[in-house]
Amino acid sequence: MPESPGGPAPHRRRDVSGTAPVAVIIPALNEEQALGQVLAAIPRAVVREIVVVDNGSTDRTADVARAAGATVVREPRRGYGAACLAGLARLAANPPGIVVFIDADASDDPAELPAVLAPIREGRADLVVGSRVRGEHEPGSLTAAQMAGNRLATFLLRALFGVRYTDLGPFRAIRWAALERLRMRDRDYGWTVEMQARAARAGLAALEVPVRYRRRVGRSKISGTLRGVIGAGWKILLTIVRIRLGA
Predict the structure, then answer these.
(1) What average pLDDT does range 168-194 have in this prediction?
(2) Cα–Cα distance between 163 and 204 in angstroms, integer?
(3) Average pLDDT of the segment spanning 156-169
(4) At CB < 8 A and 24+ separation, what contacts does 238-246 make?
(5) Which among 53, 75, 174, 182 could bridge 198 via Cys, Cβ 3.0 to 4.6 Å?
(6) Please, what is the end-to-end C-alpha distance for the chain in angstroms?
(7) Distance separating alpha carbons of residues 240 and 92, to the nearest angstrom
(8) How many whole angstroms separate alpha carbon 52 and alpha carbon 63?
(9) Tens digits of per-residue pLDDT, 13-33?
């Protein structure tokens, strides 16, 4: 399946080396059951460092991460965006050329990392979003609420920013220099859509690639609860509108 353009690319760069160092950030909250599987599946030959951000776990998440050779960062303030920002702060002293975000619950397939990286390696994109909608997804891996939220959010991204996406998938890669320009600040549910909206406003070259998506191990902290679904949906819509208004 071909890749789909994320939007205009006036600032697109073609000088990214095929050997640019890659770091992976994995936000994790009580994911000891799945995390070992995720870390074992990451192709270490293409990754310089793996940072697992323990977002206030009460289980052995941090121990599992250390045993697998990952760097562990603690971020007790709950929130997906807060965990991502803590991981970026850890990398800032020696930044990679490309940073990858992937979930800790084994729903994403880390073996697809080379495919997600390829458009950046080849100088065709600054941001690559793994689309669960366009890829193969197991029955039950995407809930009806997630699918509906994706359709609405991607419709608004197209209507307000002129970019075409099918998903706000968490499995994504972005050039470090491009990410710095975005000045990300959302600390919870709005992180993924904030990145896509800010990238559109900045004129970054963005692509989607289809990725496989599996039923997660354990219960989702967002889609597994009514409160999480409502909170995430509301925050995503507010984030899109806020960025469109220039905030």
Answers:
(1) 96
(2) 11
(3) 96
(4) 238/190, 239/186, 239/190, 239/193, 239/194, 239/197, 240/153, 240/156, 240/157, 240/160, 240/193, 240/197, 241/156, 241/160, 243/194, 243/197, 243/198, 243/201, 244/160, 244/161, 244/197
(5) 182
(6) 35
(7) 27
(8) 11
(9) 544 557 899 999 999 999 999
Query: Would you state the structure tokens that stand for residue 233, as one six-digit string?
Result: 């949906």
**Contact 173/199 with Cβ under 8 angstroms?**
no
Pairing of strands 49-54, 127-131: unpaired
Confidence of residue 6 (pLDDT cuts 50, 70, 90): low
Q: Which residues contact 57 (CB under 8 A, 6 or more apart)?
A: 28, 29, 30, 31, 32
Q: Is 129 helix (H, G, I), strand (E, B) or coil?
A: strand
165, 154 Cβ separation under 8 angstroms:
yes
Cα dihedral sign, 28-31-32-33: negative
Can you tell me which residue has the tokens 């549910």? 189
Query: Could you tell me which residues are beta bridge partners of residue 5?
Result: 207
Residue 145 and residue 56: Cα distance in Å, rounded?
Answer: 26
| CA–CA dist 95, 98 (Å, integer) | 8
Q: Which of 98, 105, 102, 89 is nearest to 34 (CA)?
A: 105
Quickly tell me which residue has 């936000």 as its tokens. 27
What CATH number has the domain bearing residue 81? Answer: 3.90.550.10
Number of domains in the chain: 1
